[in-house]
Design a protein that fits this description.
There is one protein chain. The chain has 1 helix and 16 strands. 9% of the residues lie in helices and 59% in strands.
Length: 166
């Protein structure tokens, strides 16, 4: 079982560390060594080949790197993160009925959708102002808005019912 899943420009690779200095990428074995020159520059040796790696943006799990003049968007996931991603993907595809509650106390500034409207996952439903910040309340999945429980200009407490999606 892979130790990690790495996306390189949206292409998934399975990565497994088999022994010190040994790595398996998509079933192929390599001898490796990585040397950190500074926090953004590394030398990577795979078998007998040396690659200059520059981290342009990002952190440990998501980065934009430059290798030998080519840019790669990377995302690194553990086995557990990969399983969670698969479960969430399956959940998103199923039909839901979900009551969306206010994540914080605030005031409803704008309601962008009406009951009966079809919405896509991630689509903005309303704007909630809290501590002088506007927070976009989005649909957690695709569906139809069954009911909206608040009006524009109304104050809501944390946990107050905002809308129902089915």
């Amino acid at each position: 079982m892979p130790d990690y899943f790495v996306d390189l420009n949206k292409k998934e690779k399975s990565v497994r560390f088999t022994a010190p200095g040994e790595i398996e990428i998509d079933g192929r074995s390599y001898h490796y060594r990585i040397e950190e020159i500074n926090e953004n520059y590394y030398l990577l040796r795979l078998n007998n080949r040396v690659y200059k790696v520059n981290k342009v943006l990002g952190d440990k799990s998501n980065s934009l790197i430059l290798i030998e003049g080519k840019y790669f968007e990377t995302e690194v996931r553990t086995n557990l993160e990969q399983k969670a991603r698969q479960v969430l993907s399956n959940v998103k595809q199923k039909s839901h009925h979900s009551l969306i509650k206010s994540p914080m106390p605030g005031m409803v500034l704008k309601i962008k959708k009406n009951a009966g409207d079809e919405v896509a996952q991630g689509e903005s439903i309303m704007i909630l102002e809290a501590m002088k910040m506007e927070n976009d309340i989005k649909s957690p999945f695709s569906g139809i808005i069954k009911d909206i429980y608040v009006d524009e200009g109304s104050a809501v407490e944390k946990g107050a019912k905002l809308f129902l999606i089915g």
